What does this fold into?
Amino acid sequence: MEHHTTYLGQLRLDPPLAEAELDWLRAFAEWGGGPHGDPFDVPMNPRADLAGRAGQDPWARPADEGRRTGIPAGVRDWAPCDEGCHLVWRPAPFSNDALLALRFLVDHFLGPRALARGRGPAFDAFTFDHRVDGVLAAHRDDTEELFLLRAEDGRFHRETLDPGTRRWSGDGDGGGDAGAPQDADEGEAPWEVGAASEEAPGGEVVGARGATVRELVRHRAARGPRGRGP
It folds into this structure.
């Protein structure tokens, strides 16, 4: 079952990306993968390869894409900002595997143990010394689950705030963790998240319309079961 997840927030890159890193990673997000068996078998200029695929659906995601390429489909949904100081979500249909995508970017291109080091001239200008920190709020449209993705020095943790109205055990936002949404910590009410979100790296997450995570969760709790009013 396809589902979509909406993400609020951004992740800090420290130090910011150098110009060569910024340009390559933004082009890589536009390229988004191809029929290659090796995740490093990518064009030195991904935009040129993308131009060669003109006319194809840019959001087409074959069911076996991850198995064919070794590149999570969701990498195309995350790109550096124009200044190279943050990773930001690029809204896209059926965006739902942020953990897989973000871990791939850190493990291959950003962190000190990045696997791309020494894999070709495209990476000669990469410094591989970037911390990734921050917190994202996320909402699944199939279960109405609300959760946080926390990043601390390139390590990611998923925290459920409200498990939603029903369970789904498929793939997606588990990002390599258990498929079903995870419960909040034992003894913690899932809607009491104010202190945790305010103390999270980067401060409290704020949505496009100014809604904070606390407000989103309180709104969800007040609605009751899906399809019913307060």
